[in-house]
Structure formats: structure tokens, C-alpha cells
Amino acid sequence: MALVLVRVDCRLIHGQIIEAWTPFTRADCLLVANDQVAEDFLQRSIMEMSVPPNLEVAVFKVDEASERLAGGLWADKRVILLFANCTDALQFHRNFPVFNRLNIGNTDCSPGKKQVTCSVSLGEGDIECLKEISDTGVFIEARSVPQDQARPINEIKELCLLA
User: Fold this and answer.
1) Among 4, 37, 46, 8, which residue's Cα sits nearest to residue 22?
2) Is residue 78 within 8 Å of 25, Cβ to Cβ?
3) At CA 42, angle to CA 34 and CA 4, rounded to 5?
4) What is the mean pLDDT of the chain?
5) DSSP letter for each residue of 35-52
6) Strand 29-33 and strand 56-60: pairing?
7) Alpha carbons 130 and 64: distance in angstroms, whole number
8) Among candidates 5, 22, 3, 24, which has minimal Cα distance to 104?
């Protein structure tokens, strides 16, 4: 198995993933790790139907996704692993620390969060999660699409205001 992209994006599967990241990474599998979506038949079905037929889609709870990856499922695939939030990424990483790079593509701008790039807003809890992941040697970048310049998350000045 090759994890070709590990990404936090509150939208999960959407146009940027299908039209930009999948061709860029040559992925043939999208793995969504999110407890709420895994339990929502309608939302899961919409995601599965929204991708081209040559692209495999799997949606699992976070713990189950890490167990299945650890067990060798998708061993012959180029996988994009998608989390809806930083908490899910940390939970997965604690279970199965298999990735060394994490892309923060899009997070919601809810109350208590500070916008740190045009598409990324983070709160104190997000910063704590990302710090724990980063402390294990994972490089964390903010980047919406492959053509954008990757911004190392530890260099974004606005984060200092949250710490």
C-alpha cells in the first residue's frame, strides 16, 4: 500500500480531490476515515456515487480504517487517506503511525477558530492535535491543491497567536 496523500479536509471527497489530487498522486483509492460519515448511509452513498468508476472508495470509522490499513487491505493500491478534522488525524496516527506527511487542505471556520490561510482555520484543539502529530516527525503542510506552494504549518505566523 502506498499512502500517496494524507489530508485533513472537512469536505472529504469533493472536486479538488477528484480533479486535482487524484491525477496528481495517481491514486486509485480514496479512504475516508470518519466515524460520523461511516455511520451515515446516505452521506456515505453520496460519496461513493460521486467518484469515477475507476476509483475505489472506502468509508470507515477512524479506528476501523487504521486496523484495515494495518492488516494489509489496499496493499496493492495508491491511497488518498482523508480526515474531516485534526482530531480524526491524530486518533488514526496514534493507532497506526504510518504517515510522515500530513496535508491540511480545508478546515471549517467555526467559532473559536482563527483563519490561518485562505482555506484553513484552526482552534486551540486543532493546534494541540497537529503539535502532537508533528512531534512524532510528521511534516505538516497547508495546501489546497497540488499547484499551490506548500506552507509548513509551523511557519504560519498566525498560529503563534493561538498557542
Assistant:
1) 4
2) yes
3) 40
4) 92
5) HHHHH-HHHHHHHHHTS-
6) parallel
7) 21
8) 5
DSSP notation for 121-148: EE-HHHHHHHHHHHTTT-EEEE-SSTTS
Question: So what's the pLDDT on residue 2?
Answer: 86
Looking at the DSSP assignment, which residues form a beta bridge with residue 32?
A: 59, 82
Q: What is the pLDDT of residues 31-55, one digit of tens each?
A: 999 999 999 999 999 999 999 999 9
Q: Hey, what's the cell of 92?
A: 488514526
- From the number of C-beta atoms within 10 Å of its C-beta (0-12, 13-18, 19+), residue 47 rates as buried
> Which of 82, 90, 97 is closest to 4 using CA atoms?
82
**Could you tell me if 153 and 159 are in contact, meaning their C-beta atoms sit under 8 angstroms apart?**
yes
